[in-house]
Specification:
Elements (H helix, E strand, L loop, with lengths): L7 E3 L8 H9 L5 E2 L3 E2 H6 L1 H7 L9 E6 L6 H8 L6 E6 L4 H4 L11 H14 L4 E10 L2 E2 L1 H11 L3 E8 L11 H9 L4 E4 L5 H11 L3 E4 L19 H19 L6 H16 L6 H9 L3 H17 L2 H4 L2
Parallel strand pairs: 1-10, 2-4, 3-4, 4-5, 5-6, 6-8, 8-9, 9-10
Antiparallel strand pairs: 6-7
């Protein structure tokens, strides 16, 4: 069983939730982890994709793998490939709004064909050696809200749980998530429902559970550069304490990401998108931000971290903008 009772779950995010980031979030309170979205076609065709996307450490458990696929015919091969990997559950992505995904009939495109989605889930449940879950959006657009039909079909297909991100595909990540759809799904189905969307911290997580009745809360974009979002009782920090914590955590994140990258230089380039989020909101950080985000060499990044950290530890005027 997946421990979903009041759990805080790290959302699957392509190009973000690699092993280094997952483990960082786990240390800061994430109860359940999910890999980044794995395209099944790449998984079946590319040994390199399998080596990069599937490995995880035993202590990351409970952890699921999220798959992107659009037809039932590839399900058996994908489930066979995953059979001995040790994942605690397998999740189907039926919500990704990106054009490259939906143009292939995957992700949010499945919301327009609930019967096809149900057939895929039935095949997954039959073939998988672990529980199957599904992550959906509220619909394709305001005129095509299919989440209730999709949720009922998913339950009938035998899935263990459903995650609802109550934005439409047309919304992408804009506007406000309509949590009322999470509540309506919870009233409709008898399986656990995970709420997702606009959760910026523990106060939001508690409010989502209270307003919707959802069993667990999934957090995605708010965790990037902010793994502390999973902490149930965050400690109040001064600006200096917050900056030093950020630098220490970002350093750790980067060093743990190095062995996972194809090259040290590539590791820096990939990490910069995380770094931009770590630096967001840090007072008077413009000069250091430009320096940190401009490096392409691991040692140069380390030296930039050293300078930034030293100024804040010493309480210099430059660091604090005085």
């Amino acid at each position: 069983m997946i421990p979903l009772d009041d759990a805080r779950i790290l959302a699957p995010m392509a190009d973000y939730t690699d092993g280094a980031f997952r483990r960082l979030c786990k240390r800061h309170g994430a109860d359940v982890l999910v890999t980044e979205m794995v395209p099944v076609q790449a998984l079946l065709r590319s040994p390199r994709a399998r080596e990069h996307l599937l490995p995880f450490e035993p202590w990351e458990s409970p952890i699921g793998v999220q798959l992107s696929l659009g037809t039932p015919d590839v399900v058996d091969a994908a489930m066979a490939l995953l059979a001995d990997k040790g994942f605690d559950f397998v999740d189907l992505n039926a919500g990704c709004p990106m054009r490259t995904t939906v143009n292939g009939g995957c992700g949010a495109a499945l919301l327009r064909e609930p019967a096809r989605l149900e057939e895929i889930l039935r095949r997954m449940v039959k073939a998988a050696v672990a529980p199957v879950t599904v992550k959906v959006r509220s619909g394709w657009c305001d005129d095509e809200i299919t989440v209730l039909e999709v949720a009922k079909r998913a339950e009938q297909a035998g899935v263990t749980a459903i995650t609802v991100h109550p934005r439409t595909r047309d919304q992408m990540y804009r506007g406000k998530a309509d949590w009322s759809w999470i509540g309506r799904v919870k009233e409709l189905v008898g399986i656990p429902v995970v709420g997702n969307g606009d959760v910026q911290g523990e106060d939001d997580a508690r409010r989502m559970r209270a307003e919707t009745g959802c069993d667990a809360v999934m957090i995605g974009r708010a965790a990037v550069g902010n793994p502390w979002v999973f902490e149930r009782t965050p400690a109040p920090l001064t600006d200096r304490e917050r900056v030093l914590r950020t630098v220490t955590t970002a350093r750790q994140h980067f060093e743990e990401s190095l062995p996972l990258a194809r090259s040290p230089r590539y590791a820096v380039v990939v990490f910069r998108k995380h770094l931009a989020r770590y630096l967001k909101g840090i007072p008077h950080s413009r000069e250091h931000r430009l320096e940190l985000l401009g490096v392409t060499d691991p040692d140069a990044l380390r030296r930039a971290f050293d300078t930034f950290e030293a100024e804040w530890r010493e309480g210099s005027d430059a660091a604090q903008g005085r």
